[in-house]
């Protein structure tokens, strides 16, 4: 299950990273240059574990990546505050009630980003938790 989840979501990450260059406000998200690059790199890493990594490594990746994305979404909701994006090309977007400026003007996450991050975190965690893998094999 972990290899399948990593492969499928890896493809989705790369596609969203590419789409973000053309449509920075895709589905209400804040896809800046930095955010797109994070998606493309994350997608490539996920594809590596999904296609070339061992089952144990893919499982560990899904657990760690899932925890990080889930935490990012929760922190975004908790730390976000009302505001308008200041990223070039997105200044025309509506105000967001939970805008979280990790790097103001470069990497800003809004309500939809937080929601998507939580959902991705849950999917990755499911992939990791539902995979039985010999953890010792990842160390060998």
List the helices and strands and how they pair.
Blueprint (H helix, E strand, L loop, with lengths): L1 H21 L10 H19 L3 H25 L1 E3 L12 E8 L3 E3 L1 H19 L5 H5 L1
Antiparallel strand pairs: 1-2, 2-3
Question: What is the end-to-end distance?
Answer: 22 Å
Using only C-alpha atoms, the radius of gyration works out to 16 Å
Largest sheet: 3 strands, antiparallel
What shape does the CA trace take?
elongated
Contiguous helical run count: 5
Element order, helices and strands?
Answer: HHHEEEHH
Task: Give the helix level as a range of percent.
Answer: 55-70%
Stretches where pLDDT is under 50 for at least 5 consecutive residues are none
Per DSSP, what share of the residues sits in E-state strands of 2 or more residues?
5-15%
Number of strands: 3
Mean pLDDT: 92
**SS content category:** mainly alpha
Strand order of the largest sheet: 1-2-3
Short account of what is shown:
With 140 residues, the chain is mainly α. It is 64% helix and 10% strand.
